[in-house]
Amino acid sequence: MSGATRELTDPDFVVHLCTSDPYTAVMYSARDQVENSEWLDEVEATAERLDMDEAARSRAADLFLSNVPETDRSKRAVLATSVYVAGLVEGDSRSQQRVAEAADVSRLTISKRYEALLESQGLDAPGW
What we know:
By secondary structure, the chain is mainly alpha-helical. The protein has a single domain (31-120), classed as Cyclin A, domain 1, CATH 1.10.472.
C-alpha cells in the first residue's frame, strides 16, 4: 500500500474499526483484500490451528492487509508476524515458536519483525 493519504470516503479503501479498541482504525485497499484472498484464508487457517479467538483472528487479517508486501516471497513472514502480534494485542497470545510452526516459518522470522509491525500500527510492545 502506498503512503499517500486518502479520504475516508474513498470507495477503493476499507476502514475497519478494531473491536477491542474503538479508537484504532486500520485502513487498507479493497483491492488488497481481493488480491490476497488466498493469503487471508491462510491467516484464518493459521489462527484456527492455534485456536485463537475471533478478535485475534480479525486483528491478524487487518494487520496483514495493512502491511501486505509487494512480493509473495515476503507474505508468509508478514502473515506469521501478523498472527503473533494480533495475539499479543488481543490478549490471546501464543509463543513465537507455536505461531512459527503453525505458519511454517522460523521463529526468527517473527522475532525479527514483530516490534516493527507493532510500531507501524502505533502499538506498544509488551514490557516483559
